[in-house]
Design brief:
Blueprint (H helix, E strand, L loop, with lengths): L9 E3 L7 H4 L3 H11 L5 E3 H7 L9 H6 L8 H12 L4 H13 L15 E2 L2 E2 L3 E5 L2 E4 L35 H8 L5 E4 L9 H8 L12 E6 L1 H4 L10 H13 L3 E7 L9 H12 L3 E8 L7 H13 L3 E7 L6 H4 L3 H12 L10 E6 L3 E11 L2 E11 L9 E4 L21 H17 L8
Helix pairs in contact: 2-5, 5-6, 12-14
Length: 453
C-alpha cells in the first residue's frame, strides 16, 4: 500500500476562516463556533477536515461534533456572556478574563487530580506526575501538552487554555525519574498529556529510553495514551521521524518490557482510512499492543450499533477493546453526558452483539475521585431499583471487586449524583475523605494551588 506523504496543517481559533468547508456554513453557526472556541480549546487539522468529516452531514456528523465547537457546549448564560463580549469587540485581555471566569465554573480538574493524585518526593510535589493507583504512575511530558487536534469533550481541556494554574507538566529536572526509582511498587508508567505523540522522536526517546535501564527493572509496562493514531496516523507512516518512532517501539519490546499504545478511538469512522490501517500495521509489527478506549459521548457515539461496529472493526484490525468510559463531570458535560441508566443499556446492547474477542472491554466505567467504578447493571432490592457498582481500580486496592449499591436515579450521570442504597455513606467514603484531607494539608504546606472538587 502506497501512502502519500501529507504535511500537517493545524487550524486554531484564528484560522477558522481558512477552512474552506467551514466557510460554507451559515453565518450564525460560524459565530456560535467562534463564541464557544473563545472558552474551550479548539484545534483541528487538515487530515480531519479533509478525510474524516462528512461536510454534507453538518452538524450531525460525529467527527464534526468531535472536533468543532457547538453552541450547546456552553451553558446559556456562559454563551451569552462571551457572545456579548465578542459583539462589543472587547480587547484580548478582557475576553480572556471573561473566558477564565467561565472556565473556573466548569470543574477544570475533576476526580481530585489537582490534589489527591499529586505525589511527593522529599516533602515537595513532583511536577507533571500523578500517582492515583499503586501500580500505575502517570507522567505528563512538558513537550506533550498539546494534541494534533482537540476533542470537544476532552476532560483535560484545562491543559490547553493558557491558565498556568490549571496545567500539569514535568519540570526539566527529571525528578519524576527519581520518584519512579524510589517507588518499586510501580510497574506501569503511562505517558499522557495532552498527547505524548506530538513530540519529536528525540523528545519522546528522552522520556522512554532511560526506563529501559536496569535501575527501572521494576517498570514492566510502558503505556502511551494517544489520539494520534486516528487524528494524525502519518506520525507512524510518512512523517520525517516515523521510522525512528517505530524503531523506538521495537527497542522497548526487545528490552523485555510490554509496550501498550492506549489509543483513543471514539467512532468507527476514525478507522476507515488507508493511512490509519497502515499505521496500525506498522505499530503492531513491533510487538506493541494497541488497546482502545473512549467515553460514551452524546451526539457522537451514544448508540449501541456504533459501539458494536467499532469493537468488531478494532478486533478485525488486531486492536484490543479496553475501556467504555462515562463522560467525566467537567467542561461541557451537560452537552455530552449520557445518564448512567442509558449507559448501562447501550453497553449491554453493544456487548450482546459481539463475540468473546470483543468482550475484553470493561464498562461503563467512571474515573472518579475514589477510583475507576464500573456500573455493573441495575437490579431490584426489596422492590426498589438500584445500581450495582464495583471498583475496577481504587485508591485503596482493597476496594477492588467489592460490590456496592446506589439508589436508582434516572438523572444521574456521575458518581457524585448517586446516593447509597444502604446507610448514609458508601463504604469507602470515610477513608477517602481522610485521605484527601491529609493530602490537601500536605500540599497546602507547599503552597500548591488546590482546586475544589
Amino acid at each position: 500500500m502506497m501512502i502519500l506523504e501529507k504535511k500537517l496543517k493545524f487550524y486554531g481559533l484564528k484560522d477558522l476562516e481558512k477552512i474552506p468547508q467551514f466557510n460554507q456554513l451559515p453565518e450564525e453557526q460560524k459565530f456560535e463556533t467562534k463564541v464557544v472556541s473563545h472558552v474551550l480549546p479548539f484545534r483541528t487539522n487538515n487530515y480531519i477536515v479533509e478525510e474524516l468529516i462528512d461536510w454534507n452531514n453538518i452538524p450531525a456528523d460525529p467527527m464534526f461534533q468531535l472536533t468543532f465547537m457547538q453552541k450547546g457546549m456552553l451553558a446559556n448564560d456562559h454563551f451569552n456572556r462571551m457572545a456579548d463580549a465578542l459583539r462589543r469587540d472587547l480587547s484580548k485581555e478582557e475576553l480572556k478574563e471573561i473566558a477564565d471566569d467561565i472556565r473556573r465554573e466548569m470543574n477544570p480538574h475533576p476526580a481530585g487530580q489537582a490534589v489527591a493524585n499529586v505525589p511527593v518526593l522529599d516533602d515537595e510535589p513532583v511536577a507533571g506526575v500523578q500517582h492515583k493507583y499503586r501500580e500505575t504512575c502517570l507522567v505528563f511530558p512538558t513537550g506533550g501538552q498539546t494534541c494534533h487536534a482537540y476533542c470537544t469533550f476532552c476532560f483535560r481541556w484545562a491543559q490547553f487554555v493558557n491558565m498556568d494554574d490549571l496545567q500539569f507538566a514535568t519540570d526539566e529536572s527529571k525528578r519524576f525519574q527519581q520518584y519512579l526509582k524510589e517507588h518499586k511498587e510501580i510497574s506501569d508508567v503511562l505517558f499522557t498529556g495532552g498527547d505524548p505523540m506530538v513530540m519529536s522522536y528525540q523528545k519522546l526517546n528522552a522520556y522512554i529510553e532511560p526506563l529501559l535501564g536496569p535501575e527501572f527493572d521494576h517498570i514492566k509496562n510502558i503505556r502511551i495514551g494517544t489520539k494520534s493514531l486516528t487524528y494524525w496516523p502519518y506520525k507512524y507512516v510518512t512523517d520525517k521521524d516515523a521510522d525512528k518512532i517505530i524503531d523506538l517501539f521495537d527497542r522497548v519490546v526487545d528490552s523485555g518490557k510490554h509496550l501498550a499504545i492506549m489509543a483513543h478511538v471514539n467512532h468507527h469512522v476514525e478507522l476507515s482510512t488507508d493511512v490509519v490501517n497502515e499505521a496500525i500495521r506498522r505499530i503492531k509489527k513491533t510487538g506493541a499492543q494497541i488497546r482502545t478506549q473512549s467515553p460514551l459521548i452524546q451526539h457522537i457515539n451514544d448508540d449501541s450499533k456504533v459501539w458494536s461496529t467499532m469493537w468488531k472493526k478494532q478486533v478485525n484490525l488486531g486492536l484490543i477493546p479496553y475501556y467504555f468510559f462515562v463522560e467525566r463531570d467537567t467542561g461541557p458535560k451537560n452537552y455530552f453526558a449520557v445518564p448512567l441508566h442509558r449507559a448501562v443499556d447501550i453497553f449491554r446492547d453493544a456487548y450482546s452483539e459481539v463475540s468473546g474477542l470483543c468482550r475484553t472491554v470493561r464498562g461503563p466505567s467512571m474515573s472518579a475521585t475514589p477510583g475507576k467504578i464500573q456500573v455493573e447493571g441495575i437490579t431490584e432490592i426489596n422492590g426498589e431499583k438500584a445500581f450495582v457498582l464495583n471498583f475496577l481500580q481504587g485508591r485503596n486496592a482493597k476496594w477492588v471487586k467489592n460490590p456496592f449499591f446506589a439508589k436508582y436515579d434516572e438523572d444521574a450521570i456521575w458518581l457524585d449524583d448517586l446516593k447509597p442504597f444502604f446507610g448514609d455513606k458508601f463504604f469507602f467514603e470515610k477513608e477517602l475523605d481522610e485521605f484527601i484531607q491529609k493530602k490537601t494539608d500536605q500540599l497546602g504546606k507547599n503552597d500548591i494551588h488546590v482546586v475544589n472538587f
